[in-house]
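Hi there. Long-time user, first ticket. I'm pasting a complex I've been working with (about 243 residues overall). I'd like to know whether the download I got is complete or cut off, because the file seemed smaller than I expected. Thanks.
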Amino acid sequence: MLENIDFPTKIQSIAFLTGAGISAESGVPTFRDAQTGLWAKYRPEELATPGAFQLQPGVVWQWYQWRRELIAKVSPNAGHQAIAQLEQRVPNVHVITQNVDGLHQDAGSTDVVELHGRITRNFCFDCGEDYLDDTSSLEHPPTCKACGGLVRPGVVWFGESLPEAALERAIKLCSEVDLVVVVGTSSIVQPAASLPFYSLRAGIPVVEINPTETPLTESATVSLRGNAAEVLPGLVKSILSEK
Ligand code: BV8
Ligand code: ZN
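Hi, the file is complete. Here it is re-exported in full:
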């Protein structure tokens, strides 16, 4: 399926840019999927913001508790595992993820750049003090022991800047690897959605895997319609046969 990509002869380094779609087959709902039950009446963009947390800290905190409990019960799928297994044969495999679920690390990937933080982390909104996820059983956000501020989930909300080092590393990797594979993202949220264009400008082939078209589709070198857990194992096999 990859015969029409003029791959670099030897693939020494690959970056996988992943979004919520790669975790869909593990049972983690994407932001695009309609929220279920209690959360059906909220749009994620309305909840995942500093303003929402300041206005209704309990509601936002409980949304994260619901997601944390769900994520605690799921495991990586064949898509996450295919990427992790590639590390045994390709010297440099990098994962740059928008996901906050930690499933790439659980699958064994050793170089994961988390652009939007990690849902199991917490820190004080006011003084930045880190809190372990032992706070995850509470109905309301705990108050910070150091300053009395509110403890918040350790993720990047809309309107907040991404961790500088993570974004810089992601841009650098996307500008210098031999191949980029973009999996399971609607390619809408910035600045993550701009990363594949650094690669295309550098003449690096970009393969997209998504059951539907996205704003990246027409620019991608190849866009494969399909689910991550089905397409990625085949793609990894083709990459290994190229070596
Ligand atoms: C920022 C963590 C600078 C939280 C998330 C210009 C000027 C000013 C502001 C903006 C601007 N451009 C954009 C913005 C604002 C904003 C933005 O991009 N808005 C969008 C809506 C247009 N960006 C930001 O605010 C970012 N910060 O720009 O800082 C700044 C600073 C101050 C003021 C202004 C600017 C911060 C963005 C990070 C937000 N945090 N997550 C949490 O998890 O709670 S984003 C969150 O939504 C995800 O991390 C992901 O990145 C994004 C999208 O989620 P989903 O749609 O679920 O997932 P995805 O997009 O991956 O879509 C699912 C895809 O999977 C679909 O395509 C589907 O077809 C596919 N799929 C489904 N099943 C499968 C599958 N694929 C494969 N296999 C399957 N089985
Ligand atoms: Zn504090």
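A couple of notes from our side: Residues 100 and 118 are 4 Å apart (CA to CA). The radius of gyration is 18 Å.
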